[in-house]
């Protein structure tokens, strides 16, 4: 029977042997069934969640000129104005209209003396001069989320029949994104193909989404029906992304999802994308293939896959018109 709501996974016992085993069992059921779940009782407190949402609201309340002064740089960090991204690589729908949303993108910190500095997506973050406390709020939340996600690697590995520490080497220098999104309200009679975020899948490993109470996120079930990811205070909505689906040979699915803000007010969400090292090679796990279930996807370097999608989906990465 297909689910009529997203499953909920309780992380109260995360980090204990018994807890990680129980969580692994629930993860396998949720991610194999619909690819999405609510996570409750995470290590991230309500105060931490509220602080990052408040920081996002403060940033998006700035004058347009102040935001555009820190437009997205070549390293995919900074402000993304409304209607500047089109999900051209969507495998779900023919997307021609840009997303009706704006966002601030922060990625993992790369110090100037880091050997990676200057490589694709390895550069400085950008910060609004008008909000002196903003940088500290974002960095604190990012650090808490990275620690949380590293702790998740053990139950994920256990769920896939791997040694608990199997995934750790792939995340020595993880690729992380924190995106502070603002969705203006859409008219109730807006066109069917107008979205705050058009139907799409995510690129990497796991997405950990903090959403406000406005609603608007929907997840596509296997039969094509769209389920509402109704906000639950204090929880995260977590989904499998493309690289994890490829790693598991489709055992866990990277599920299409979309956003349409019909709440009548502004919607704020803070997705955190936790992905492997840029040079990590992703190929079918031995525990997810056998003679009757050969690998469905060729091996791929995560960085190559990511850059190919960013280059197609974001206006600032397009070559100038001749």
TrEMBL record:
For this UniProt entry, the molecular function terms from Gene Ontology, in alphabetical order, are: metal ion binding; oxidoreductase activity
Give UniProt keywords alphabetically: Iron, Metal-binding, Oxidoreductase
Determine the domain of life of the protein's source.
Answer: Bacteria
Specify the Fe2OG dioxygenase domain's residue ranges. 174-276
PROSITE patterns the UniProt entry points to: FE2OG_OXY (PS51471)
In Pfam terms, one family for this protein is: 2OG-FeII_Oxy
Q: Which InterPro entries match?
A: DIOX_N, IPNS-like_FE2OG_OXY, IPNS-like_sf, Oxoglu/Fe-dep_dioxygenase_dom
Q: Which family does it belong to?
A: Belongs to the iron/ascorbate-dependent oxidoreductase family.
Q: This chain belongs to which protein, by name?
A: Isopenicillin N synthase
Organism lineage string: Bacteria, Pseudomonadati, Pseudomonadota, Alphaproteobacteria, Acetobacterales
């Amino acid at each position: 029977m297909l689910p009529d709501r997203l499953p909920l996974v309780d992380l109260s016992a995360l980090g204990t042997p018994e807890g990680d085993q129980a969580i692994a069992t629930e993860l396998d059921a949720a991610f194999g069934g619909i690819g999405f779940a609510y996570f409750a009782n995470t290590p991230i407190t309500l105060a931490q969640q509220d602080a990052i949402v408040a920081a996002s609201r403060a940033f998006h309340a700035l004058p347009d000129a102040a935001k555009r002064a820190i437009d997205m740089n070549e390293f995919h960090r900074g402000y993304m104005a409304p209607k500047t991204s089109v999900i051209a690589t969507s495998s779900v729908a023919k997307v021609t209209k840009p997303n009706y949303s704006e966002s601030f993108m922060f990625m993992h910190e790369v110090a100037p003396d880091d050997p990676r500095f200057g490589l694709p997506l390895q550069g400085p973050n950008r910060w609004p001069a008008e909000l002196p406390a903003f940088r500290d709020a974002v960095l604190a939340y990012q650090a808490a989320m990275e620690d949380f996600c590293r702790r998740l690697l053990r139950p994920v590995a256990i769920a896939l029949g791997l040694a608990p520490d199997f995934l750790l080497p792939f995340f020595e220098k993880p690729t992380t994104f924190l995106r502070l999104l603002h969705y203006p309200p859409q008219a109730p009679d807006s066109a069917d193909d107008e979205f705050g975020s058009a139907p799409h899948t995510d690129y990497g490993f796991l997405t950990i989404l903090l959403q406000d109470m406005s609603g608007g996120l929907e997840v596509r079930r296997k039969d094509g029906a769209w389920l509402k990811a109704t906000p639950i205070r204090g929880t995260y909505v977590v989904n499998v992304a493309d690289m994890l689906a490829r790693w598991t040979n489709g055992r866990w699915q990277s599920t299409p999802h979309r956003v349409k803000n019909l709440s009548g007010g502004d919607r704020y969400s803070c997705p955190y994308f936790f992905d492997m090292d840029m040079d990590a090679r992703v190929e079918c796990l031995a525990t997810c293939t056998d003679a009757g279930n050969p690998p469905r996807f060729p091996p791929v370097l995560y960085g190559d896959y990511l850059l190919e999608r960013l280059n197609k989906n974001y206006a600032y990465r397009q070559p100038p018109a001749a």
